[in-house]
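Appendix B: a complete holo record

For completeness, this appendix reproduces one full record from the ligand-bound portion of the collection. The bound molecule is S-adenosylmethionine. The inputs are the chain sequence and the ligand SMILES; the output is the full three-dimensional arrangement of the complex, encoded as structure tokens. No fields have been trimmed.
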Amino acid sequence: MSKHMTPECYKVITKYVFDICGIVLGDDKHYLIEQRLTPVLPDLGCETFTDLAKKLNSGVTNFLTREKMLNAMTTNETSFFRDDHPYVAFRDKIMPDMLERVKQRKERPWQRRGPKVAMWSVAASTGQEPYSMAMVIADVVTAKGMGLVTMEDFGILGTDISSKVLARAMEGVYSSLEVARGLTPEMRNRHFLQDGSSYVVGEKLRKIVEFKAFNIQDPFTQIGSFDVIFCRNILIYFSDDAKRKILSQFFQILAPDGYLLLGSAENMYNLNSDFVTERYGATTIYKKPAPK
Ligand SMILES: C[S@@+](CC[C@H](N)C(=O)[O-])C[C@H]1O[C@@H](n2cnc3c(N)ncnc32)[C@H](O)[C@@H]1O
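The structure of the chain with S-adenosylmethionine bound, as generated:
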């Protein structure tokens, strides 16, 4: 039986993907879908795309079907210090501000429980982004913390919708190829332990990074409030309406003077005008202005 998709199947599958995670698959993604779903058809109890479309259309799909579809259809490409320049802005522009913030908040301990400065890596994928943020924090704290600011003053939440990538992020074990993408040997030796041909994220970083599953299409009511949000290379997959909703929720949950960084191919043009933009080198930083 043919494993190719009819236009009807294509419609059902792309609608299902949109409904579960907001990813918009245009009219030209037949190849991508076939390539990603063909290997998981047997796991889904299907022989053909027609079987799959019937299953998804029946409305009785279970949690496992959703997980398998999500794990197959999300694009999880990432690397340590991806694009580099946002991390320069984070280290040289945002972190000095965060050190001051920690010191100020320490003078008013009754105002906040938990870490003094909270950060969110929205689409953490296999963990390279939140661990890169943690490496910057560790290096800045060592160089400039002067015992007044410590690693424990920071907390990073890494979230993703895909259980498969989150499991890897929590494990924090990377191949030599993965660490070579973005890390110098010095950075690697400073922050990782070697285990055979793999590299394991060091305890210092692990202590401030936690992971949990979160669908960014869901309301942000339970997620908390943050001083810095990295939302990189995920908005590109969504509709303008979804982007507007997400950006306005970022604005709500950011602390006054909080920072948002988007991916290099993402911006807020025609989507949100609440944020103030600042350029730092090659990076656009979005800032929530403090009330006057
Ligand atoms: C291309 S990766 C970006 C990783 C990282 N932020 C970076 O820039 O290197 C996009 C991630 O977004 C996740 N994702 C897709 N839809 C999502 C949703 N609705 N909620 C949360 N995460 C989602 C995918 O699972 C994937 O791991």
